Amino acid sequence: MSTEEVKETASVLSVHDDSIKVTEVLKEGDTLTFIIVSQKLSGTGEYHVDRTYEDFEWLQQHLFSQGDVPGIQGVIFPPLPAKPQVNASPRSIKQLGFLALGECQPYCKALETFLQQVAAHSILSKNKAVEVFLTSSDPPGRQKVKKNIFNRLSQAVEEMRKEGHKDVDEFFQNERDHNLILTGCTKTAAEKFLDVVATEQKIAVACGHFSTALHLCVEPGEDPDKQAFSRVCVKLSEVFESIKKNMTSVAENNVNTLGLGLDLESRYQEAEREMLFRRTCKLVELENAQRNVEKAKPVKKAAMEEVKKAAETEFEHTSGVAKQEIARFQGARVEMLQQALVGWCEKQLLTAKESADQFNQHLEVFRGMA
Amino acid sequence: MATSSERSPPPFPDSEDQDVLDAEEVRGRDSDEDEDLFGMTEMDTTPTSDVSMKPPSDIMNDPLIEPMIKADVTVEATIDRSEVTAGVIDPLSQQEAKQTSTAPVIDLSGDSQPVTSKIADPLVALFSDAPPAAEAKKPSSANVDLFDDEEGSDIFAEPLQTKPAKQPQKSLFGEPDEDVFGEPLGAISKKPVPKDKPADIFSQAAASTPSVTSTVNPKTNGVHSEEDGDIFAEATVELSLDSPRNERKKEATAKPSAPAPTSLPAAASLAKPQPPALEEVRDGMNAYMAYKVSTQTTLPMFRNKTFTVRRRFSDFLGLYEKLSEKHGPNGFIVPPPPEKSLLGMTKVKVGKEDSSSTDFVERRRGALERYLQRVVNHPSLLQDPDVREFLEREELPRAVSTQALSGAGFLKMINKATDAVSKMTIKMNESDVWFEEKLQEVESADQQFRKLHALVESLVVHRKELSLNTASFAKSAAMLGSAEDNTALSRALSQLAEVEDKMEQLHQEQAASDTFTFAEMIADYIRLLVGFFPHRKCEFCDLQGSFDHRMKAWQRWQDAQSMLQKKRETEAKLLWANKPDKLQLAKEEIAEWEAKVTQYERDFERVSATVRKEVIRFEREKTKNCKRQVITYLECLLQSQQQLIKYWEAFLPEAKAIA
C-alpha cells in the first residue's frame, strides 16, 4: 500500500476506539507479531489483524506527515513505545523500562493504549491510515519507511539550538518550563519505581531458592525427632513459597498499574515536549520571516511578506491546535494517573489481604504443631 | 511522649530517696548518694545531661531489640525497665555509678520478674511505698504515677496478656512502646530539671539533647559523659533464668498467658547495643565493648533473684574455654560462642557509625545472647560453678588465656588439634552404627545449613536493596508531587511518597527479621555443627567436637588395650626365660593395665552414652527452636502485611479524590 493512496482520503473510523485490544503476541524468529482485535461500529463482528512493529511505525509516520491538515504540528502525538527486542540487550531493556518486563504483556498493553489513543483522537482518527491499520487484512507497512523530520535523532541536534528560544506567548513559555521539569521528574520516578520492581522480583526468586533448598533439609527416617524437624522444614518451605507468591504479585501489580502509568506519562510528557518544540520551531521560522521582511529590499518585500504571512498562519494554526491539545492532555493525564494510582492501590490491597490470610494460616499451622 | 509531657514536673530525686530508702537496702545506698549529689549540684542540671544523652539511644534501640529478642515478652519488658531504671539512677550516682547503678537495675528488674513468675508482690511493695513520699513532696506524685502506670499496666500487663504474637507489632507500631519508653525517659529528664519547663524537655526527650544541655552545667556534663557511655551505652545481656526445676512452681503461680517462660525455662536475653548506646570502654589503646548480662532466676543456687554484670567479649570466650575443657571430654556439647571478628570489631572501634557496624554489633549481641541461653538451658552446664560465676560475680578475672589464644594463634592451635583428631578418625573403625550414621548426618546437615545460610543472606541483601530503592522512589515521587500543577494529583503524589517512606521502614524491618530470625539461627546451627569456615573446622567444641572427644576416649581405650597386650607378651617372655623376680613386677603391671582397660572402656561407654544423649537433645532443641523462630517470623510477616493493608486503605481515598 503506497503512501499516496492513503493520504487523500479522510474518513471516519469504523471501529470503537475503546474496543481495540492487542490480544496476543507471536514470536517467529526475531520478529514479534501482534494480534489486534477491534469491534466494528456497524453492528456485530470484529476485525482481527496481525501487525508487526514495522506496521506500527508505518502508522506513526503517516500520522506525522499529514501535511494537509492545518495545525497538525500542534498535535501531541500518542507516543509509540520503542521497538521491542526478542533477545534484548541490557541497553534496549533499559530504554524500554517497564515494557521490557514480563512476558510481553506490559508491552502489548502499551501498544494497545497507543492505538486507543490514536483512534480516540479527533484529528488523528480521521486519517485513513488508522482505518487501514486496524481493519485491512494486508499488512500495510512492510516496506522500508522513510524517516522524515520527526525523526528523533535529527531533532535532537536541532533541539540544542532552539529549545531555549524565548516564547512570545506566556502560556506556552510556562507550559514549556513546566513540561521540562515534569519530564525529568516523571522519568526519574519511573526509573526508581522500576528499580523497586526489579528488586521485588529478585526477592521473589531468592525466596523460591530458599524454599527449594529447605526441602533438602528433610531427613528420612522413622525417628520422631527427625520427622518433627522435617515437618518444620516442609512447612517453612511452604511459607517461603507464599512469600514468593506475594512478592511476585506485588511486583506484577506494580508493573501493571503504576508502572505502566508512569511509563505512559513519561512518554506522553516527551510527546508534549516534542510538540512544543515543533511549535517553537515554527515560531523561530516566523520570527526569521519577520526579520527578513524588515530587512528586505522593496523589490523582494512582497514576496517576503507572503512568506511571513504563510508562516504566521501556520504558526497560529499550530498554536491553536496546541492549546487545545494541551488542555485535553492535562485532563487526560490526570485521569490516567488517577486510574493508575487507584488501580495500583486496589490491587496491592487485595494482594496484601490475601497474603495476610495465607500467613495467618501458616501461623496457625505452626502454632498447632506439637 | 505526649502523656509524659502533660505531667507535672516531679522533683524525682527527693521522692525517690525516701521511697527507696524504705523500700530496699541497696537502693537506699544508692539514693544516699543521690542526696549528696543533689545537695552539691542543687539537683537540677547535673543529671540532665546524662539523661538527655541517654534517651536517644534507648529510643533508637527499642525497635531493634524487640523484633529479634526471642525471649518472651516478659523478659523484654524487663529489659526495658531495667534500662530505664539504669538511666534514672546512673546520672545520680555519678562516679560510683557502676556499683550503685547495677544495684537498682537489679531491684527493678527484680520487681518486674515476679510479675512474670510470681507476680507483683515486690512491685506492690516498692510502689506502695512511693505514694506517701509523694504526698510529702507534692511534685513527686507524677513520678509515682509513672511507675504505677507503666509497671502495672503498660509494660507488664499488656505484654503479658497479649500473646507473643502481638509483640512485634508493638515494636513496629509502637503505641505501648511509646508509653514504655517515652514516659520513663521523660521522667528521667524531668526529674533533674524540676523548676522550669520540664514538659518541653520531656516531650522531646530524645531530640532535646542540645537544648537541655545548654541550660545545664557544662562541667558536670563533661564529667558525666564518660560514665554515661560506660553504663548505658552498654550492650546488655539480660539473662533470665528460671530453671526447669522451678518451672512447676512457676506454672502454678504464673499466669498461663506467659507461655514463653515455660518453654524457655532459662531465658537469656541480650538487650541491644546501639552505636550511640554502645558501651565502648576506651582505656588507652585498648578500646573494647562491654555487654551487660542481666539474669533473673528463681534458682536457689544464686544469691539473688536478679543481678547484672558487665562482661566483655573475651569473657564469653573464656567461659567457653573453661566449659569445653571440663565438659567436652565427657561428651557434652558445649555451645560455641560467636567467633572473634577483627574486621567487624575494628570498624566499631574506629567509631564508624555506618549500618554495617551497627549490624555487626547487633548480630554479635544476638549471638552472645543465644549462646548464653544455650548454656543456661543445658541442665549440666548450668550447674557449673564457672557459669554461675560468669553470671553473678561482679568482677571476673581477666581471661588471659583467651586473649593470648584469640585470633590467629588460637585458630592455628585448634586446627592442629583437629588435624590430629581427624587422622585418628580414619583409624577408628566405628563399631556403633548409630554414631556412624549421626556423623554422616551431621556432615550433610552442615552442608545444607551452609547453603541455606548463603540463600538467606542473599535474600537479606535484596531486602535491604528494596528498602533503599523504595526510599529513592519515595523521594522521586515527592519531587514529582511538588512539580505537579494539578492540586489533587500533587497531593496524592505527596501522600504516595509518604506511603512509600513507611514501606521503606517495613522493608527494613523485614530485612532485620530475615537476618535475625533465619540467618542468625542458621548461623548458630552451623556453628554448632562445625566451625564457621571449612579451614576452621572444629574451631569450637561442638557436635563434631563431642564426636571427637568420644574418639579420643576410644583411642585411649585402644592404646591401653594394646599396652596390656604388650605387657602380657612380656610376661610370657619372662615366664619362658624363667625370671621369677621380674615376673612379679610384670604381673602387677598387667593387673594395673587390666584395670586401666576396664576403666577406659567404661569411660568410652560413658562418653558414648553422653554424646548420644546430647545429640538427641540437640536435635530436639533444634526443632523446637526452629519452630519458635518460624512463629516469630510469621508473626512479624503478618504484622507487616496488616500494616501494609492499613497504608493502602489510607491511601485509596486519596487516589480516588484526584479529579
TrEMBL record, chain A:
Pfam families: PX, Vps5. It comes from the Eukaryota. Signal peptide: none annotated. Gene3D superfamilies: Arfaptin homology (AH) domain/BAR domain, Phox-like domain. Residues 1-141 form the PX domain. The keyword Cell cycle does not apply. InterPro entries: AH/BAR_dom_sf, PX_dom, PX_dom_sf, Vps5_C. Coiled coil: none annotated. Keywords: Protein transport, Transport. This is Sorting nexin-6 isoform X1. It comes from Pundamilia nyererei. The gene is LOC102198912.
From TrEMBL, chain B:
Residues 132-142, 254-272 have a biased composition (Low complexity). GO terms for cellular component: cytosol; early endosome membrane; Golgi apparatus; lamellipodium. Residues 14-23 have a biased composition (Acidic residues). Residues 583-610 form a coiled coil. Residues 269-398 form the PX domain. GO terms for biological process: early endosome to Golgi transport; intracellular protein transport. Pfam families: PX, Sorting_nexin, Vps5. PROSITE patterns: PX. SMART domains: PX. Residues 92-103, 205-223 have a biased composition (Polar residues). Residues 244-253 have a biased composition (Basic and acidic residues). It is found in: Cell projection, Lamellipodium; Early endosome membrane; Golgi apparatus, trans-Golgi network membrane. Keywords: Acetylation, Cell projection, Coiled coil, Endosome, Golgi apparatus, Lipid-binding, Membrane, Phosphoprotein, Protein transport, Transport. GO terms for molecular function: phosphatidylinositol binding. SUPFAM superfamilies: PX domain (SSF64268). It comes from the Eukaryota. Residues 1-63, 90-113, 132-276 are annotated as: Disordered. It is a peripheral membrane protein. Belongs to the sorting nexin family. This is Sorting nexin-1.
